UniProtKB/TrEMBL annotation, chains A, B:
EC numbers for this chain: 1.1.1.194
Record carries keyword Cell wall biogenesis/degradation: no
Keyword Zinc: no
Matching PANTHER family: EG:BACR7A4.14 PROTEIN-RELATED (PTHR43975:SF2), ZGC:101858 (PTHR43975)
Molecular function as annotated in GO: coniferyl-alcohol dehydrogenase activity
Organism whose genome encodes this protein: Pararhodobacter zhoushanensis
Descriptive protein name: Coniferyl-alcohol dehydrogenase
Pfam families: adh_short, adh_short_C2
UniProt keywords, alphabetically: Oxidoreductase
Domain of life: Bacteria
Amino acid sequence: MTQRTYAVTGVASGIGAELARILKEQGHRVIGFDIHEAQANLDRFIALDLNDAASITAAAAQVDEPLDGLCNNAGLPPRAGLEETILQVNFLGTRAFTQALLPRLRAGGSVVNMASRAGAHWRENVAQVKRLAAVGGCEGLAAFIAAEQIDATRCYNLTKEAIILWTMAEAEAMIQRDLRMNTLSPGGTATGIFGDFQRAFGAAVDRNIKRAGRAGKPEEIAQIAAFVLSPAANWLKGADIAIDGGMGAFNLTDAMDLQGLRLA
Amino acid sequence: MTQRTYAVTGVASGIGAELARILKEQGHRVIGFDIHEAQANLDRFIALDLNDAASITAAAAQVDEPLDGLCNNAGLPPRAGLEETILQVNFLGTRAFTQALLPRLRAGGSVVNMASRAGAHWRENVAQVKRLAAVGGCEGLAAFIAAEQIDATRCYNLTKEAIILWTMAEAEAMIQRDLRMNTLSPGGTATGIFGDFQRAFGAAVDRNIKRAGRAGKPEEIAQIAAFVLSPAANWLKGADIAIDGGMGAFNLTDAMDLQGLRLA
């Protein structure tokens, strides 16, 4: 097999840590980024704080080898008090880090952005996403939050809608760079930040998990991320893939009253 | 590795033939179904006419071993004069064949249904899909087509919307059977029926392919089908995956005017 080199953010825990493990198991090199130091399954660790423009520049500058792919997996959960940081880390900082790494991505390279089932309502929130995308700097963010009157949960959902729409918007430009970018939208996954989602989204989380039979496992998301990073997925471009054990389908089935379509 | 056994319909050409090749290359057993006899990359060929209820029953009855997965890939293109056959083969017959094979599918089994980018407007056509799903027998189909006043192109799109919505609707019931079902939605793929799509969808097809750089290759769709059939994709349930080289993303970007979100 061909050994490839992948960059993975948020590699210290959860889906990112599982992705590093799987990529190493497949024989690849992994450069891991996180705000918390990590070593497991990494060829190299580089400290990265997506809330800090200088850290983004410095981290990207330390990458001195060509990359076959980048998984933008790092993200903050919905947590009161973190509104600005969520907008910065999950979307604006992730976008800036991607831009900083573009020159390192080899032709044919794959960028996988971790979105969320929480971003599924992107169709209804295009205008707010555009306003967020146009915000510059930290002062701008505080004013944006005040003007939009949004709490941490809405900030979180907005960043996931933004990452889906941004990925779509870049599809054509990425082709011109001989790169491709897609989003994955996990739902109800058993990671260290699962409690935040239960608090933010209430009973719906437990109801979905009950219908799905259990929460998703980080490795189940990471397996699909590893595939989308690989050349076997090379015709996947600008797509969003729901990885939620059926949770999205249950909710759409209810909303559209599709039960009658089922086999006897 | 574990050898698995997969059933693939429409295996004589295009995406189905490529899927058989890839699954064999991965060391699996492949039982192929088609209206046209095929042998390449198959452990067994079973004749199947999805337009014929007796053929569906007979073909399914010939499967005497447990299956790890089924790819419902067979389908007719939009072609004037084939209206009833399109509705029958692409949706009603495919659904009946799936039902007939359910008892053969092993716990953990994966069903992959070939939808299309032409089915992307499922949100707007739920009511018509429900009416199609309720049609019984051939006489019913003629009356349905007359009542709905639909041509072959609309029939084709409707069957693809139907397969996406049906797959969604089954997500929860499939979990109870310890199975999972997803759809793939290729766009602009270079198969033997490509000319039909150019005639049916006009200049939009060539425009999309120009923006994507080229048409998709059957093997690029089949690689993803092989992955979704595999246990590595086991948390994918009730999902629809666009595999279109970015064509869906271009069109959504235009429709929502997202160009401003792009990196400089």
